[in-house]
From TrEMBL:
Keyword flag Hydrolase: yes
GO CC term (a single one): cytoplasm
EC number of this enzyme: 3.5.2.7
An example Gene Ontology biological process: L-histidine catabolic process to glutamate and formamide
Domain Amidohydrolase: 71-93
Top-level enzyme category: hydrolase
Pathway(s) per entry: Amino-acid degradation
Any Pfam family matching the protein: Amidohydro_3
GO molecular function, one term: metal ion binding
Name used for this protein in its record: imidazolonepropionase
Alphabetized Gene3D superfamilies for the sequence: Metal-dependent hydrolases, Urease, subunit C, domain 1
Keywords of the record: Cytoplasm, Histidine metabolism, Hydrolase, Iron, Metal-binding, Zinc
Organism: Caldisericum exile
Length: 183
């Protein structure tokens, strides 16, 4: 069988987390359950993993050409991306004040009497925001997710509470799907 030419190879990972139980993995029981490979590598072709294992083994098992993108992951952890199946990323008002009050044990009825707290406050601010303002704010929220390893996200609407506002939010989600690298 001819070895495949890799489009991407990530090698020398201090730890490569496969999340596939492997009793042949060296290390603790936990390492085996997580499929944790020390000095690991992963090779990719056409967006599909074609080899995974110890760096020296993967490098020998694939062809690396002049156009193969190579990442030296020395002292790094390589792991699958996070998938967030339920987010409400499109909103124009944060609620940390409410969070702090709850954490302090303040009763819900008192929190809702505070200015700019509660879901209704978020709805009010979200409705007031323009498409462009919401889009820019949501891009920031999305970039935080990407920075922390999220590769796939489902964006739900919900803060519009009427047809016109919900459609505005869905258009923002569609724009982000078509114009950002995250799924």
């Amino acid at each position: 069988m001819e070895t495949q030419l890799a489009d991407l190879i990530i090698f020398n990972a201090k730890e490569l987390l496969t999340l596939v139980e492997d009793t042949t993995v060296e290390g603790t029981e936990k390492d085996k359950k997580l499929g944790l490979i020390h000095d690991g590598a992963v090779a990719v072709k056409d967006k599909k993993i074609i080899a995974v294992g110890k760096s020296d083994e993967v490098i020998k098992s694939v062809r690396i050409g002049k156009h193969t993108y190579q990442i030296d992951a020395s002292n790094k952890v390589v792991m699958p991306g996070f998938v967030d199946p339920h987010t409400h990323l499109i909103f124009a008002h944060t609620r940390e004040k409410e969070f702090i009050l709850r954490h302090q044990g303040v009763q819900e009825s008192k929190i809702l009497k505070e200015e700019n707290t509660g879901i209704i406050s978020t709805v009010r601010h979200t409705r007031k925001a323009t498409f462009e303002e919401l889009l820019e704010e949501t891009k920031k929220h999305l970039s935080y997710l990407v920075d922390w390893g999220t590769t796939t996200v489902e964006i739900k609407s919900g803060y519009g509470l009427n047809l016109e506002e919900e459609i505005k939010m869905l258009k923002i989600a569609k724009y982000l799907k078509e114009n950002t690298p995250i799924n």
